[in-house]
Amino acid sequence: MQNNDKVGVIFFSDKIEKFIPPKKGKSHILMIIRHLIDFQPESKGTDIELAIKYLNNVIKRRATTFIISDFIAKYNYEDALKIANKKHDIIVLQLYDKAEENLPNLGLVPFLDAETNQLQWINSSDKQVRKDYEIASLKRKDKLKTIFKKAGVDSASIGTHQDYVKPLMTLFKKRG
Length: 176
Description:
The chain is α/β, with parallel strands linked by helices and 176 residues long. It has one domain (44-175). The protein has helices spanning 26-38, 48-58, 78-87, 127-151, 165-175; strands at 7-12, 16-23, 64-69, 89-96, 108-112, 119-123, 154-159. α2 packs parallel to α3 and α3 (78-87) runs parallel beside α4. The protein starts with 6 loop residues before the first strand and ends with a helix.
């Protein structure tokens, strides 16, 4: 706001839900914040590639762009991310829930896929199941780091359990 930069937002799921074109001004920023607070997606899927391609189509001039997501997506977005980062300055903020990293020993527990509404039962008392879960979580994190590095984007992982200021400050110090 102090630089009087234009700010816009694209809300997406597995479709473009809402686009607010970039504009300057305090009232525009406050309107975006209201939309951020009130936004309820119509769909539960995630198509990051679609959002990135949409960004490239609607924003013609080079822009600093933040993509905020958990990056749990069934669609491949790696190539689109690389292409977008050549046109824009892409910064990725990957959100995660610490509860997704380690499976607690709770016996038989239901898992509901938020995007497909598919229910699956897992025996969390089984040590091997918990270990496999942890390994899968670590592999997913490593894969995301590799994707972001290959695309040449700056990134930060921010847990829902932590203060977001420290990872953001670290990211911006790294960017100079």
